[in-house]
Amino acid sequence: MKSFILFTLLAAGVFWNAPVIAQGIKFENLTMSQAMAKASDPGAPRLIFLDCYTSWCMPCLEMAKEVFPQKECGDFFNPRFVSVKFDMEKGEGAALRKKYDVNVYPTFLILDSKGEEINRIVGKSETAEFIEKVKAAMDPNTSMAGMKATYEKKKSMMNGYPYAKALFDNGRDPSSILEELYDSSMDFERFSFTYLDLALRAVKFGSPFFRKMMLEKARIDQAVGAEMVNQIIFDKIRKDMYIVATETGAKYNIHYTPEEVENVAYTMALLKQDSQKPESHMCKIALYVVRKDLDGMIDYYKRYMWNLSPTEAFKVITDGILTSKAAGATDVQKEAIREYFRMASRSFEREAKQYQSKAEIIK
């Protein structure tokens, strides 16, 4: 009886799911060359929809399970596209990742029958929103190629900003376009909040364009707000400095010389960050690490970090960095690290006692 029930449930599952799968996007098991050949068929010319995913990308999996099987997707995609998907870390997918410069997941490429990119969509969307994004990506006026042609015909903020934003939104670097606009536009355009918000988020820390913008930081602060500008700048470099501090640059292919880290630390010191926030110390910690100055690093922790709140997420991270250095420390240095943690413990023992006293007052 149990076997019969199990069989019935499994069968129901198969028949329940089968129509949904059949109604959704029909992904074909083709090589890229085969997909191009099929899209070139004079009897049924189509574009190519390329799903660029990885095995570890949860939004990729969610799109595959929740969006692609929907009937609306099948109705829209199947008559218009030859649809294929590739894991960007395996087989032909690795070559396609390099060819199309795919660095963000999920990325969805709209290609012509020759494999030339028309446009791309990045990130997860709900079904209706995703279809609208693809429609817009197919429109010659809003396609990447169309916006590029419009900008090259007349290089103005009106034409350049939408193109630069589309590049940025789709995981591309728009810095060269933004710098051209910065150099050629009127002040009311280049110091507008809209332009600066995009330029600050897109520009690479320490690049010539970044330094050019920093020469006008007072005006940028006035337009955007100093606190917001400083946070955007810090967010650009925080991850890199964490990688330097944890000495994991080889894993992520991120490398800084001591001089470069020093320049970063000096720049960040001028931004007047809140020293009570543990993340504000990351650049200086990275500088001690890259200089291989463990004594200086321990002293810095004992001076400035022992009394920072242990409930802050970055306090756990910064303390973890110091702990990780103990393996290569001398006995004297290990004792100094222990003393740092004892100092931190004593600080919060006092707080704990204060809270306990308040609790005991309540009758």
What is the string of SSEs from the N terminus onward? HHEHHEHEEHHHHHHHHHHHHHHH
Strand content: 5-15%
Number of helices: 20
Report the principal-axis shape: globular
The domain count comes to 3
Helix content: 55-70%
Over the alpha carbons, how many angstroms does the gyration radius reach? 27 Å
The N- to C-terminal Cα distance equals: 63 Å
Strand order of the largest sheet: 2-1-3-4
Give a written overview of the molecule.
Residues 1-139 form the Thioredoxin domain. This is Thioredoxin-like protein. InterPro entries: Thioredoxin-like_sf, Thioredoxin_domain. By secondary structure, the chain is α+β, with helices and mostly antiparallel strands. It folds into 3 domains: 23-139, Glutaredoxin, CATH 3.40.30.10; 140-224; 225-354, no CATH class. Helices cover 63% and strands 7% of the residues. The protein has helices spanning 2-23, 32-39, 58-67, 71-77, 91-99, 127-138, 144-153, 157-169, 175-184, 187-190, 193-202, 208-214, 217-224, 226-245, 249-252, 258-269, 282-290, 294-304, 313-324, 331-361; strands at residues 47-53, 81-87, 107-111, 117-122. It has a 4-stranded mixed sheet with strand order 2-1-3-4, sandwiched between helices. The model is unreliable at 1-21 (pLDDT under 50).
